[in-house]
Amino acid sequence: QLQLVESGGGLVQPGGSLRLSCTGSGFTLSPYTMNWIRQAPGKGPEWVSFINSGSTITNYTDSVKGRFTISRDNAKNTLYLQMNSLKPEDTAVYYCRTGVPYYWGQGTQVTVSS
Questions:
Q1: Chain mean pLDDT for the chain
Q2: Among residues 19, 100, 7, which one has the least CA distance to residue 53?
Q3: By the 8 A CB rule, do 114 and 14 touch?
């Protein structure tokens, strides 16, 4: 069974940091471009970040540039999202997703609150 399993979410104070992980199970992530997508309460999905298969190209939505860093370790079959200087508006369920064909993880909750 092909799965993406996210972890690393939680409750953090504004200004804090979290690192999300997304591990492939039953398939190899290395050929795929990968994305992080988030969905805040009451809002639609928002694309956050992209990385190509060789980690040579990354991209971010403007609201997280300079604060979030996407990376991958193909040897560990894992995608990461390092999130620094977190803000309350970053509160959302964060999903990892492959490029086409699309596979989604189950999501991990990130809550930024004092």
A1: 96
A2: 100
A3: yes
pLDDT of residue 1: 81
Confidence (pLDDT) at 101: 86
Type of residue found at 51: I
Token readout for 74 is 């193909």
| pLDDT (0 to 100) of residue 100 | 85
Q: Which parts of the chain register pLDDT below 50?
A: none
Q: Is residue 24 within 8 Å of 4, Cβ to Cβ?
A: yes
Half-sphere exposure of 57 (CA within 13 A, CB side): 7
Give the chain as a 3 state SS string: CCEEEEECCEEECCCCCEEEEEEEECCCCCCCCEEEEEECCCCCEEEEEEECCCCCCEEECHHHCCCEEEEEECCCCEEEEEECCCCHHHCEEEEEEECCCCCEECCEEEEECC
- What angle (nearest 5°) sits at the alpha carbon of residue 108, between those of residues 60 and 15? 60
